[in-house]
Amino acid sequence: MTATAPITQDVLTLPRKLPEGGLINLIGLTRDQVLAALLAAGTPAGQAKMRVRQVWQWVYYWGIRDFAQMTNLAKDYRALLAEHFVVELPEVVTRQVSADGTRKYLVRIAGGHEVEVVYIPETDRGTLCISSQVGCTLTCSFCHTGTQKLVRNLTAGEIVGQVMLARGDLGEWPVKGQPKPDGRLISNVVLMGMGEPLYNFDNVRDAMKVVMDDEGIALGRRRITLSTSGVVPEIARTALEIGCLLAVSFHATTDEVRDQLVPINKKWNIATLLDALRAYPGLSNSERITFEYVMLDGVNDSKDDAHRLVDLLRGIPAKVNLIPFNEWPGAPYKRSSGNRIHAFADIIHNAGYASPIRTPRGEDIMAACGQLKSESQKQRRSAQKASAAE
Ligand code: SAH
Ligand code: SF4
User: Fold this and answer.
1) Whether residue 82 sits in one domain with residue 150
2) 153 and 59, same structural domain?
3) Ligand 2: which of 129, 134, 140 to mutate, judged by most atoms within 8 Å of the beta carbon?
4) Does a structural domain hold residue 114?
5) Is residue 117 situated within a structural domain?
């Protein structure tokens, strides 16, 4: 018998806690980390690479989480896996379905923290909006998440887990013996939920590598969009190390206004940000940067703003996503009128840039951009009330 080396977190060089019982969660580990883990669990070196492939396919292609069902592995080996590992997803606490079909999941992760995940079905695509942090260290004045202090970064496993649990809920895992359905329910993933993904770069990168892996979920790199508020030093790494598309929360055309709306602008101002975007590796017309622009009544929505934005974009393959402001209780802004938004969009469009106006989705369940947080907090408050009343 092969002596089984004790598995420690050092083996995996991961800043993660062992789940109860000391078992390691395979979700979110890179292939190299899975290899190291399987070797440390006693997999013979000559078989290890093949075992990684087999386990990987069970978990990420078929969505199987019970080792006992991994039928092309010998029974002894399944038992060995079950002795050392688990395949665990974050727990879905609640699932709400909006009148427009949008689904919002409140998800609990280790430590009892909660994040929100939103699925938005459209005619030509299905977009899953995932979170990268619990809360956010930044304090954008129009964003509800920004009013919640950062609690912690999500692990790579918790980020991959959001995609997996949504696939499960939507019934998207393939079933053996049944034909593969055409198209995908989750055709796109956007890192636009809670948190600033570039402040949790390594975990986001590792998670997206897993989601893109050809032998698993196999989502193409151009199906993934990472949205940043403008963490300039990490922007190029997004292209180099992940290869996904980039969106930038731009929201203003002068430093004075952007300082107010997106305070990270005080650190990296508009000119610095635009320099980093111009230098974004692989930038082309087919891989444009999305400029997100939230429409705030009387703050950033004038015709002058639109013309200034066109000037700033010059030379950058870009499209502009206009986001009607989603209000939340106590928000210091109002949504721009439809007329203003359309006038703004026309100026951008006439200058040659696509300027779609994003239709707010899932507003009835507070799932729209920038509204995340409230539900978990509301639930916590009502739970507190309920337990106080007991
Ligand atoms: N932290 C990252 C990603 C999460 S925010 C970022 O800031 O880019 C996702 C998008 O929702 C951003 O463009 C953000 O500016 C926008 N947003 C935040 N609050 C909003 C609100 N109340 N209404 C509309 N969009 C909002
Ligand atoms: Fe954080 Fe993005 Fe919200 Fe700003 S807009 S507070 S960076 S989540």
Assistant:
1) no
2) no
3) 140
4) yes
5) yes
Q: Is 116 a catalytic residue?
A: yes
The confidence score (pLDDT) of residue 370 equals: 63
Distance 262 CA to ligand 2 centre (A): 8
DSSP assignment of 37-103: HHHHTT--HHHHHHHHHHHHIIIIIS----GGG-TTS-HHHHHHHHHHEE---PEEEEEEE-TTS-E
Question: Which of 86, 104, 135 lies at the terminal end of a domain, its last residue?
Answer: 86
**What is the pLDDT of the chain when averaged over all its residues?**
89
What is the residue range of 15's domain? 9-86
Q: What is the CATH number of the domain that holds 220?
A: 3.20.20.70
Q: 387 in a domain, yes or no?
A: no
* CA 208 to the chain's CA centroid: 9
390 found inside a domain: no
151 and 269 assigned to the same domain? yes
Q: Tokens for 194?
A: 């809670």
Q: What is the pLDDT of residues 244-296, one digit of tens each?
A: 999 999 999 999 999 999 999 999 999 999 999 999 999 898 899 999 999 99
**Mutation to probe ligand 1, out of 369, 372, 373 (largest number of atoms < 8 A from CB):** 369
Tens digit of each residue's pLDDT (9 = 90 or more) over 74-95? 999 999 999 999 999 999 999 9
pLDDT at 307 over 60: yes
What pTM, to 2 d.p., does this model score? 0.90
First to last CA, the chain: 56
Q: How many domains does the chain have?
A: 2
Given the residues 114, 116, 196, 234, the one annotated as active site: 116
Cβ 207 vs Cβ 244: under 8 Å = no
* 358-373: pLDDT as tens digits: 987 877 777 666 665 5
Most distant CA pair in the chain, distance: 75
Give residue-wise pLDDT tens across range 216-245: 999 999 999 999 999 999 999 999 999 999
Residues 82 and 167 in one domain: no
Atom of ligand 1 nearest to the CA of 194: 4
Determine the Cα–Cα distance for residues 384 and 390; give it in Å rounded to an integer.
10
